[in-house]
Protein backbone atom coordinates (compact mmCIF):
# COMPACT_ATOMS: atom_id res chain seq x y z
CA UNK A 1 0.00 0.00 0.00
CA UNK A 2 1.12 3.56 -0.51
CA UNK A 3 2.21 5.55 2.49
CA UNK A 4 -0.19 8.29 3.76
CA UNK A 5 1.23 11.78 3.55
CA UNK A 6 1.13 12.19 7.33
CA UNK A 7 3.37 9.15 7.79
CA UNK A 8 5.78 10.21 5.07
CA UNK A 9 7.45 12.76 7.32
CA UNK A 10 7.89 10.49 10.32
CA UNK A 11 8.72 6.97 9.12
CA UNK A 12 12.24 5.95 8.12
CA UNK A 13 12.99 5.10 4.50
CA UNK A 14 14.36 1.67 3.66
CA UNK A 15 16.17 1.26 0.35
CA UNK A 16 15.96 -2.41 -0.51
CA UNK A 17 16.31 -4.96 -3.29
CA UNK A 18 13.90 -7.87 -3.03
CA UNK A 19 16.33 -10.71 -3.83
CA UNK A 20 19.38 -9.42 -1.94
CA UNK A 21 19.94 -11.60 1.15
CA UNK A 22 21.24 -8.64 3.15
CA UNK A 23 18.10 -6.66 2.35
CA UNK A 24 15.93 -9.68 3.10
CA UNK A 25 17.21 -10.00 6.62
CA UNK A 26 16.78 -6.29 7.27
CA UNK A 27 13.16 -6.52 6.13
CA UNK A 28 12.65 -9.63 8.26
CA UNK A 29 13.89 -7.85 11.38
CA UNK A 30 11.82 -4.73 10.78
CA UNK A 31 8.68 -6.78 10.16
CA UNK A 32 9.30 -9.11 13.13
CA UNK A 33 9.73 -6.08 15.39
CA UNK A 34 6.62 -4.38 14.04
CA UNK A 35 8.48 -1.29 12.83
CA UNK A 36 6.89 0.20 9.69
CA UNK A 37 9.09 1.94 7.13
CA UNK A 38 8.74 3.57 3.75
CA UNK A 39 10.04 0.97 1.32
CA UNK A 40 11.90 2.04 -1.81
CA UNK A 41 12.69 -0.89 -4.08
CA UNK A 42 15.96 -0.40 -5.96
CA UNK A 43 17.06 -1.70 -9.34
CA UNK A 44 20.77 -2.25 -8.82
CA UNK A 45 21.74 -1.40 -12.40
CA UNK A 46 19.89 1.93 -12.09
CA UNK A 47 20.57 3.10 -8.56
CA UNK A 48 18.68 6.26 -7.67
CA UNK A 49 20.63 9.40 -6.86
CA UNK A 50 18.90 9.59 -3.47
CA UNK A 51 20.43 6.24 -2.50
CA UNK A 52 23.90 7.16 -3.77
CA UNK A 53 23.79 10.43 -1.83
CA UNK A 54 23.32 8.44 1.37
CA UNK A 55 25.63 5.56 0.48
CA UNK A 56 28.08 6.22 -2.37
CA UNK A 57 28.85 2.48 -2.50
CA UNK A 58 25.29 1.99 -3.74
CA UNK A 59 24.69 -1.12 -1.64
CA UNK A 60 21.44 -2.04 0.06
CA UNK A 61 19.86 -2.09 2.54
CA UNK A 62 20.05 1.49 3.73
CA UNK A 63 17.77 2.85 6.46
CA UNK A 64 17.44 6.62 6.63
CA UNK A 65 15.17 8.51 8.95
CA UNK A 66 14.52 11.51 11.17
CA UNK A 67 17.01 12.84 13.71
CA UNK A 68 20.05 11.72 11.76
CA UNK A 69 19.21 8.02 11.52
CA UNK A 70 21.43 6.46 8.84
CA UNK A 71 22.24 2.75 8.87
CA UNK A 72 24.18 1.35 5.92
CA UNK A 73 24.51 -2.32 6.85
CA UNK A 74 21.94 -5.05 7.34
CA UNK A 75 23.15 -6.13 10.77
CA UNK A 76 23.05 -2.53 11.99
CA UNK A 77 19.43 -2.33 10.86
CA UNK A 78 18.57 -5.64 12.51
CA UNK A 79 20.17 -4.69 15.81
CA UNK A 80 18.54 -1.25 15.72
CA UNK A 81 15.13 -2.89 15.20
CA UNK A 82 15.60 -5.43 18.01
CA UNK A 83 16.89 -2.75 20.39
CA UNK A 84 13.98 -0.47 19.60
CA UNK A 85 11.16 -3.00 19.84
CA UNK A 86 12.16 -6.65 20.18
CA UNK A 87 9.34 -9.08 19.37
CA UNK A 88 7.77 -10.76 22.38
CA UNK A 89 8.69 -14.39 22.89
CA UNK A 90 11.88 -14.24 20.84
CA UNK A 91 15.25 -15.38 22.06
CA UNK A 92 17.65 -12.67 23.17
CA UNK A 93 21.30 -13.08 24.30
CA UNK A 94 21.31 -13.31 28.08
CA UNK A 95 25.02 -13.10 28.84
CA UNK A 96 28.26 -11.73 27.37
CA UNK A 97 29.16 -15.27 26.33
CA UNK A 98 25.93 -15.61 24.32
CA UNK A 99 26.50 -12.20 22.71
CA UNK A 100 30.00 -13.33 21.71
CA UNK A 101 28.75 -16.65 20.30
CA UNK A 102 26.09 -14.91 18.22
CA UNK A 103 28.72 -12.51 16.89
CA UNK A 104 30.90 -15.46 15.91
CA UNK A 105 28.06 -17.08 13.95
CA UNK A 106 27.33 -13.80 12.15
CA UNK A 107 31.01 -13.20 11.38
CA UNK A 108 31.35 -16.70 9.92
CA UNK A 109 28.19 -16.28 7.85
CA UNK A 110 29.12 -12.91 6.39
CA UNK A 111 32.76 -13.87 5.91
CA UNK A 112 33.93 -17.36 4.99
CA UNK A 113 30.47 -18.79 4.32
CA UNK A 114 29.45 -15.92 2.02
CA UNK A 115 32.72 -16.23 0.08
CA UNK A 116 32.23 -19.98 -0.31
CA UNK A 117 28.61 -19.46 -1.29
CA UNK A 118 29.63 -17.01 -4.02
CA UNK A 119 32.22 -19.49 -5.30
CA UNK A 120 29.67 -22.29 -5.32
CA UNK A 121 26.99 -20.21 -7.03
CA UNK A 122 29.31 -18.47 -9.52
CA UNK A 123 32.30 -20.82 -10.05
CA UNK A 124 33.19 -19.08 -13.31
CA UNK A 125 33.90 -15.92 -11.30
CA UNK A 126 35.90 -17.78 -8.66
CA UNK A 127 38.05 -20.28 -10.58
CA UNK A 128 40.57 -20.89 -7.81
CA UNK A 129 38.42 -23.87 -6.76
CA UNK A 130 35.73 -26.03 -8.31
CA UNK A 131 32.08 -25.50 -7.44
CA UNK A 132 32.15 -28.73 -5.45
CA UNK A 133 35.18 -27.56 -3.47
CA UNK A 134 33.44 -24.28 -2.66
CA UNK A 135 30.37 -26.25 -1.60
CA UNK A 136 32.36 -28.48 0.71
CA UNK A 137 34.07 -25.45 2.22
CA UNK A 138 30.70 -23.88 2.97
CA UNK A 139 29.35 -27.09 4.47
CA UNK A 140 32.40 -27.77 6.63
CA UNK A 141 32.80 -24.21 7.87
CA UNK A 142 29.20 -23.25 8.58
CA UNK A 143 26.50 -25.77 7.75
CA UNK A 144 27.81 -28.81 9.62
CA UNK A 145 28.32 -26.72 12.79
CA UNK A 146 24.79 -25.36 12.28
CA UNK A 147 23.50 -28.94 11.88
CA UNK A 148 25.13 -29.92 15.17
CA UNK A 149 23.74 -26.84 16.91
CA UNK A 150 20.20 -27.58 15.72
CA UNK A 151 20.42 -31.28 16.59
CA UNK A 152 21.39 -30.55 20.17
CA UNK A 153 18.24 -31.20 22.19
CA UNK A 154 16.20 -31.24 18.95
CA UNK A 155 16.20 -27.47 18.62
CA UNK A 156 13.76 -25.79 16.23
CA UNK A 157 15.93 -22.67 16.02
CA UNK A 158 19.61 -21.89 16.45
CA UNK A 159 19.40 -21.24 20.19
CA UNK A 160 16.43 -23.42 21.07
CA UNK A 161 12.65 -23.40 20.82
CA UNK A 162 12.43 -19.63 20.28
CA UNK A 163 13.51 -17.86 17.09
CA UNK A 164 15.99 -15.02 17.34
CA UNK A 165 17.86 -12.42 15.36
CA UNK A 166 20.42 -15.03 14.30
CA UNK A 167 17.81 -17.20 12.59
CA UNK A 168 16.61 -14.22 10.56
CA UNK A 169 20.18 -13.26 9.70
CA UNK A 170 21.11 -16.74 8.42
CA UNK A 171 17.95 -17.83 6.58
CA UNK A 172 18.45 -15.75 3.40
CA UNK A 173 22.02 -16.98 2.89
CA UNK A 174 21.30 -20.65 3.56
CA UNK A 175 18.27 -20.30 1.28
CA UNK A 176 20.55 -19.06 -1.49
CA UNK A 177 22.95 -21.96 -0.89
CA UNK A 178 20.12 -24.51 -1.03
CA UNK A 179 18.87 -23.16 -4.35
CA UNK A 180 22.18 -23.68 -6.21
CA UNK A 181 21.63 -27.45 -6.48
CA UNK A 182 18.25 -28.29 -4.99
CA UNK A 183 18.50 -32.00 -5.84
CA UNK A 184 21.81 -32.37 -3.98
CA UNK A 185 20.48 -30.29 -1.07
CA UNK A 186 17.38 -32.46 -0.67
CA UNK A 187 18.89 -35.89 -1.31
CA UNK A 188 22.59 -35.90 -0.56
CA UNK A 189 23.55 -33.03 1.73
CA UNK A 190 22.95 -34.97 4.94
CA UNK A 191 21.90 -31.73 6.63
CA UNK A 192 18.49 -32.88 7.82
CA UNK A 193 18.18 -30.50 10.76
CA UNK A 194 19.33 -27.50 8.71
CA UNK A 195 16.89 -28.37 5.91
CA UNK A 196 14.01 -28.62 8.39
CA UNK A 197 15.04 -25.34 10.08
CA UNK A 198 15.23 -23.57 6.72
CA UNK A 199 11.92 -25.03 5.57
CA UNK A 200 10.19 -23.80 8.72
CA UNK A 201 11.63 -20.35 8.25
CA UNK A 202 10.82 -19.97 4.58
CA UNK A 203 7.30 -21.38 4.83
CA UNK A 204 6.28 -19.19 7.74
CA UNK A 205 4.14 -16.09 7.37
CA UNK A 206 6.98 -13.78 8.39
CA UNK A 207 9.27 -14.70 5.51
CA UNK A 208 6.43 -14.77 2.99
CA UNK A 209 5.32 -11.30 4.10
CA UNK A 210 8.65 -9.68 3.25
CA UNK A 211 8.95 -11.17 -0.24
CA UNK A 212 6.15 -9.28 -1.97
CA UNK A 213 7.15 -7.69 -5.26
CA UNK A 214 7.15 -3.91 -5.70
CA UNK A 215 7.98 -1.72 -8.69
CA UNK A 216 11.28 0.12 -8.69
CA UNK A 217 11.05 3.43 -6.87
CA UNK A 218 11.51 6.65 -8.82
CA UNK A 219 11.73 10.22 -7.47
CA UNK A 220 8.22 11.57 -7.15
CA UNK A 221 6.64 8.17 -6.54
CA UNK A 222 4.47 7.69 -3.49
CA UNK A 223 6.34 5.68 -0.89
CA UNK A 224 5.17 2.15 -0.13
CA UNK A 225 4.27 1.47 3.49
CA UNK A 226 6.08 -1.69 4.54
Automatic annotation (TrEMBL):
Protein name listed in UniProt: Glutathione S-transferase N-terminal domain-containing protein
Pfam families named in the record: GST_C_2, GST_N_3
Top-level lineage group: Bacteria
Domain spans labelled GST C-terminal: 95-219
InterPro entries registered for this protein in UniProt: Glutathione-S-Trfase_C-like, Glutathione-S-Trfase_C_sf, Glutathione_S-Trfase, Glutathione_S-Trfase_N, GST_Omega/HSP26, Thioredoxin-like_sf
Domain GST N-terminal: 10-89
Amino acid sequence: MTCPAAAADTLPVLYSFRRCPYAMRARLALRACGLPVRLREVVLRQKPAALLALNPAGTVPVLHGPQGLLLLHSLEIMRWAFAKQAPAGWWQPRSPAEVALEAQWLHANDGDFKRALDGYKYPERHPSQSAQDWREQAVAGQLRPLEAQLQSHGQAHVWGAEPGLLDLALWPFVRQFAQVDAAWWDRASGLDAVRAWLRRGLSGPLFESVMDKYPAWQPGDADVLF
